[in-house]
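Why should sequence recovery work at all? Because a backbone constrains its sequence more than one might expect. Tight turns favour small or flexible residues, buried strands favour hydrophobic ones, and helices have their own preferences. The token representation captures these environments compactly. In the example below, the structure is given first.
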């Protein structure tokens, strides 16, 4: 996929609306590849998981990454979060080679499929949300409590829920708590890894609406990893279809959901049509 210079227009989400991005993408992948070592120590071989892909994501843009299990989606997301190194190629964050300190400074965040992975069951929810601020030594206790209360309001939760444990909340409330924790440091890039697949359909729509609203407010770039094309359609500006570690198609959401070009993309699309 070629990289664009200057201003760039993205077709809007499936639900409508345009995103205009300036020339400096938040995320740039150039020929990025990832392989794993496999086999006994005396006979190691490299098994490719991601094959030299190109991708860029602008501030305020969501790219939906779709494909079957084992296609390399989660591996690519981990690289973009700085959780594992690429084997080949270049990963630029805001125009500079990725530096792990960016992650430690709270510029990157992730929302998982299961909110329990982000919320300590032995901590009250408010303490879990404030933990990233405490780690970075941002504000005193009172300031952190105020920021937690403000963030809970943004994700549609009452401040009194900060005093509850995760097990005392519904699945939708827990996922809102996990999103609040992800946003508390003001990240510029968020990976949503199957973030709604474990929720009831009615709750899914609420969380998808929340993600759209929060992105409009905070202008973070996002990668929405999912096998659910219907959910992806609602939040993504562009769609990247992954199969066997390759991008078989990268297109605007409007183009993809109107006329997908690759046979594999058409098969995925037909599964929800």
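From this structural description, the recovered sequence reads:
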């Amino acid at each position: 996929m070629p990289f664009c210079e200057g201003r760039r227009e993205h077709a809007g989400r499936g639900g409508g609306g345009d995103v205009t991005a300036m020339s400096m993408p938040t995320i740039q992948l150039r020929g990025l590849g990832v392989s794993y070592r496999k086999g006994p120590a005396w006979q190691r071989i490299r098994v490719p998981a991601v094959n030299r892909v190109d991708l860029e994501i602008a501030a305020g843009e969501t790219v939906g990454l779709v494909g079957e299990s084992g296609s390399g989606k989660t591996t690519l997301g981990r690289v973009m979060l700085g959780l594992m190194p690429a084997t080949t190629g270049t990963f630029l964050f805001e125009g500079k080679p990725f530096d792990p300190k960016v992650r430690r400074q709270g510029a990157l965040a992730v929302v998982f499929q299961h909110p329990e992975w982000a919320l300590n069951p032995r901590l009250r929810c408010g303490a879990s949300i404030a933990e990233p601020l405490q780690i970075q030594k941002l504000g005193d206790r009172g300031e952190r409590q105020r920021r937690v209360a403000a963030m809970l309001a943004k994700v549609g939760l009452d401040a009194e829920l900060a005093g509850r444990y995760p097990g005392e909340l519904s699945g939708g409330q827990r996922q809102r708590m996990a999103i609040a924790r992800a946003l508390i440091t003001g990240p510029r890039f968020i990976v949503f890894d199957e973030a709604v697949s474990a929720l009831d359909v009615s709750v899914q729509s609420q969380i998808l609406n929340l993600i759209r609203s929060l992105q409009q407010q905070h202008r973070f770039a996002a990668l929405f990893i999912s096998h659910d094309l219907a959910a992806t359609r609602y939040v993504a500006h562009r769609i990247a279809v992954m199969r066997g570690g390759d991008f078989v198609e990268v297109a605007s959401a409007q183009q993809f959901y109107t006329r997908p070009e690759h046979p594999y993309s058409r098969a995925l699309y037909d599964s929800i049509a």
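A few observations help interpret the result. The chain has two domains: 8-107+187-270, 119-186.
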